[in-house]
Amino acid sequence: MIQAWSPAPREGESSPERLVKACSEVAAWVVSLLGGFGLLSWAIRSTSFIVPNTALGFLLAGISLLLIARPRTTGLLRMAARLCAITVFIIGALTLVEYGLKSDFGIDRLLFEEHLARFYPVVPGRPALLTAACFILGGAALLLLELQRPKFWLWMEVLTATSMMIALLALIGYICKVPLFYGWNSLFPGVTMSLPTVFGVITLGLGILCRRPAGGLMTLVTSRTASGSIARRLLLAPVFIPLVTGWVLLVAREKGFYNPEFAGWLLSFTNIFVFTLIIWWNAQLLHKAEKVREQAEGNVRMLNAQLEERVAQRTAELYQASKTLQASEARLRQIIDLVPVYIFAKNRDGLFLLANRAIAQAFGLRPNEVEGKTQFELGTKREEAENYVQADREVIDSGQLKLIPQETFTSPEGVVHVLQTTKIPFAASGTGDPAVLGISVDITDLTNAQTQVRKLNQELEQRVRDRTADLETVNKELEAFSYSVSHDLRGPLRHIDGFVDLLRQDPDSRLSENAHRFLSLISNAAKQMGKLVDDLLHFSRTGRSEVRRTTIRMNDLVEEVVRELAPECENRVIKWHISPLPEAEADPALIKQVWANLLSNAVKYTRDRAEAEITVGSRRNGAAETEFYVKDNGAGFDMQYAGKLFGVFQRLHHAEEFEGTGIGLANVRRIVQRHGGRTWANGTVGVGASVYFTLPDPIDP
Amino acid sequence: MSSLRPILLVEDNLNDIELTLAAFKHNRLANEVIVARHGGEALDYLYCRGKYQGRPVGHPLVIFLDLKMPMVDGLEVLRTVKGDDALKVLPVVMLTSSREESDLVKTYRLGVNAYVVKPVGFQQFTDAIKQLGMFWAVINEPPPEAIKA
């Protein structure tokens, strides 16, 4: 309650308010001192300018106001303030009752009785009637003020203003010499409201009014507005101007400066003049204030317009931004729908947050019909749906991407699709709830194709096995055949040769010279055929034996073969040109046969040369192989028959020129082919021949 | 002493028998040559049964064994000889036309002592027989008689 009207300077209390409050305190002091001095005067000088009760009333009223004006007045002090106000009221009321009943209660002489008798013979020391009225009003006002109830404040102000009016009237009476105004006491002439009392009442009234600067009558006066300004300027004018002009004219008339008619006119003129000036002055003030206000209003209007414009602009921008966003989203949606892959997002409850057209079509629905539904609501097969949901949960809970290489999806029509699915955990935009993004590729065709390929492969493998078995059978038959050839064909030949020899050596036989020659031819033929059979068997074995690859030092192999050819080179002049040869990855026994065939051929076919030249070399071939060659300056051959050179039993020379079975080069070709290489030859009759073969480069392990 | 022990020739072909015997004769090998016409006969001789029942006790100096024969072939004979504790000390020389690797491998696995491919030329054949006879009948020291018991 106290705080509601606390006199303590509040935050935001304006300076006029503080000033007004200070005025209130000063007024309280003035009134208190007035009363105090009055009483002091009685005590010391046995006389005073006011009666003791009036002085007492002022003292109490002043103290009351002072206590009220003090900040943070305690309960006790407030009680004191109230008591003082009540006492003032009682003094006024009792005095008034005395006047009304024309009686004397003796209260007027309670103080300084002995001195009073000298001055006030009739009604000694009684305050004036008006003073008593003012005390009643003032005491009541102070009490209302102290009660601090807002509903009393209007009453308080009315009471105060009334008392001030009474005092003002008395003042005017003094100035304008109208005793009625201050000595309204025809009942008891002589007891008038003294000037100090008038002064005291006015001061007290001002003090009370000023106590509440922010409320009541003083609001307008303390306001910073133009009206406040005008109120401050004009409020005193109606009081003081007539007062001053009236007093001046009165004094001047008494001195006889002019007659009463002129005085009336002068009074009117002066009033007109002064009020006109004041009105003009104030009107100007208002005019200025209005101008400022108009300007301010204009500014406000302009600002408003600008603000509206900016709002409109911003709205347009937002609209544009929203449209762009919509377009962008539509484009993204379009892309997602165009992708022929299932794209979907689900939350932890298995609700579809997103479904593209592909997956929606798989359900036989549109995307918006899928979104917001669960897997179970879409008619998916129970166990499939459970698998999906389990995988989704796993991904969401682990926060790890999961690849499902194969899962099945049965469409509403009952068609089983095989899907390869990737599930990626993410936080849903907006809510931030954990969700899973899925991408499924239909690999049904692929898996079907794979199954097909596997089946074909199995069939192929079976066919290979069958064929291999067939071949193995054939090979066995061939082996049995060559075994027979080896054993059975060589036997008779041996017998022929054996018996021919026995015949020739038989001392009992008498054979002619010619017969001996025939026997020799028979023997040679048998031996030749034996050699043919041996070579043929060898050739057959070459095709069947396993190729055992190791690293071969070619130069070592060639030199070994050359050494073994030494018996055939006896009594011959042969120039060997053997270049450094690279190592090869091949079967040493077989490759040695190759060199043996080629080099023995070279030695054989150069035997008519006085000086034979045999060159062995190699050359890197671009296509991951090495080319080896043997060149000689021997009999050579006709290129027309180059194709026959490597055939079995194919000979380009007569047996009587160069012996041989026609198996050697066939063997070379067979061995080289079994190593993955090629053979060919160049030759010119009478000039020489070059035989080439290649071996593939070793494959790095 | 050893030279007096006979040589067992197991051969089905008459021509081969004649040529081999001619070669032996040519090389003047004094040892008796017992000819078995097939594996069964050879085993009969070795075990003194059939037509060889009651023959003089004693093992041959060496067996010249052909591979391909009717009824019981050379491999069978070799297997039996080398599988018998009493006989396995006998030297067995394959004398055959086959140069097949499989035959070589099989016979050596069974413990053959030598493998000779009959050359086509009679001169070479004679030389081979001569060397064989020289080696087994003259140079090589046969296992002591005590072992055969």
Verbal overview:
- The complex is a heterodimer of chains A (701) and B (149).
- Chain A has helices spanning 2-5, 15-45, 52-69, 75-101, 113-119, 129-147, 150-175, 179-182, 195-210, 218-222, 226-234, 237-254, 260-338, 357-362, 367-370, 382-398, 444-505, 513-544, 554-564, 588-605, 664-674, and strands at residues 342-347, 352-355, 402-410, 416-427, 434-442, 550-552, 574-578, 584-586, 612-621, 625-632, 679-684, 688-696.
- With 701 residues, chain A is α+β, with helices and mostly antiparallel strands.
- In chain A, strands 2-1-5-4-3 form a five-stranded antiparallel sheet, with helices on both faces. Chain A has a five-stranded mixed sheet with strand order 7-9-10-12-11. Chain A has a two-stranded antiparallel ribbon with strand order 6-8.
- In chain A, a hairpin with a 3-residue loop joins strand 9 (612-621) and strand 10 (625-632).
- The radius of gyration of chain A is 73 Å and the shape is rod-shaped.
- The two termini of chain A are 105 Å apart.
- Chain B is an alpha/beta fold and 149 residues long.
- Chain B has a five-stranded parallel sheet with strand order 2-1-3-4-5, with helices on both faces.
- In chain B, helix 1 (14-26) packs across helix 5 and helix 2 (39-46) runs parallel beside helix 3.
- The longest helix of chain B is centred in the C-terminal third of the chain and has 18 residues, at 122-139.
- Chain B is globular.
- Classes of the chains: A alpha+beta (701), B alpha/beta (149).
- The interface between A and B is medium-sized, with 28 and 22 residues.
